[in-house]
Amino acid sequence: MDPLLTAAGDRLTAYHERLAELVGIDSGSGQLDGLRAAADLVQTWCLAAGLAVEREPVADPAGTPLGDVLIARRRGRGTRRILLAGHLDTVFPPGTAAARPFRVQDGRAYGPGVCDDKGGVLAGLAAIEVLARLELADYGELILVCTPDEEIGSPGSRALLCRLGSEVDAALCLECARDNGDLVSARKGVADLEVTLRGRAAHAGIEPERGANALLAAARLTVALDALNGRWPGVTVNVGHLHAGDRPNVVADQARMLVDLRAWRTSEYEAALAEIRRLVAVPTVPGVRADVVVHAPTPPWEPSPAENRLVELAAKVGAGLGVPVSHTATGGCADANLLAEAGAAVLDGLGPVGGGDHGPAEWLDLDSVVPRIALLAGLIGEVSRIGGG
């Protein structure tokens, strides 16, 4: 067997044990105790592997604590700096780890966050351990970053990620491979928009003419926003939440909408966002005014020659290992978008194969763990020697 595969295989038992322990911790975004416990575990394993570790607490723009970013570093003999980026937060509420504990069945591991992204984080650490065992250190520095807020758009971590993205030669992201094994070479940009509409209450039976119906304005705005789908190729606009009024016999004086915008290209992303702002500003019901706030806007990660070069290097490594390498674009955004915006050459989906993200049947293919760790370790070696940018 290739030495990378052999060394990765030797890490398999430890990987399984770590995965069970890490998935057993509830670490949903904002669950500070669980996120701290998860980061403590990863820190312990990183220190045992000889990495230098630091923790940086982060908060959202309002100052609400979101947890710690864990940053682990190892110096090498070369010059190129390579970032391995993953996250420890999940989308699941407290109690999920107990209600749906880690289990293995028919070659797959199940549990909250097993694929997104705890399995990927542990693959990154295992790849570093493989390189250390084989005394392969052609890189200048390896930096493993684990964030606590990726699932909510990285409002606290994005400044750090953007700084690191501008400083490294390549960013290899540890989201797991698609369920067919594809790596990820591009992602849609996303904007979460909160629209608040304010009207005027009145008795719906006695004097409705004195009211200004915010619910009606929200309904008309919903139809107008939905009509944006198809205006630009690949742009989607979804009103996912609408709440208005309190009682049926009162003209609704307030409404709140949550809107999801996604686009493949920056120009279309910006055009759609501008059009949404324009539609919000145009009154559709006299006396109702509307405001929009954009939360954690994340621009598209568009393919570039730098990403194409990383795909070529991954395919080269995969051919040597007997691991097929293919890649795709995906509509979900991730920290890869922020790292690409900062100027790093990025490739994502470098964790093991998995699927069912954000759902009760989330899974990780255990047979993919060894070859994907070997692929990641080999790619780090290629980027170190040849360059990814």
Description:
The chain is of the alpha/beta class and 389 residues long. The protein folds into two domains: 3-187 and 300-386, Aminopeptidase, CATH 3.40.630; 189-298, Alpha-Beta Plaits, CATH 3.30.70.360. 37% of the residues lie in helices and 27% in strands. It has eleven helices and 17 strands. The protein has helices spanning 3-10, 12-23, 32-48, 96-99, 114-133, 158-167, 214-226, 266-281, 305-321, 335-341, 369-386; strands spanning 52-59, 65-75, 81-87, 103-105, 108-110, 141-147, 170-173, 176-177, 183-187, 189-198, 236-244, 254-263, 289-298, 327-330, 345-347, 351-355, 363-365. It has a six-stranded mixed β-sheet, sandwiched between helices. The longest helix is centred in the N-terminal third of the chain and has 20 residues, at 114-133. The two termini are 30 Å apart. The relative contact order is 0.18. This is Putative glutamate carboxypeptidase. Its EC number is 3.4.17.11. GO terms for molecular function: carboxypeptidase activity; metal ion binding. InterPro entries: ArgE/DapE_CS, Bact_exopeptidase_dim_dom, Pept_M20_glutamate_carboxypep, Peptidase_M20, Peptidase_M20_dimer, Peptidase_M20A. Residues 186-282 form the Peptidase M20 dimerisation domain.
Structural key phrases:
carboxypeptidase; elongated; zinc; alpha/beta; hydrolase; 5-stranded mixed beta sheet; Alpha-Beta Plaits; Pept_M20_glutamate_carboxypep; 6-stranded mixed beta sheet; 2 domains; single chain; Peptidase_M20_dimer; 27% strand; 11 helices; Aminopeptidase; 389 residues
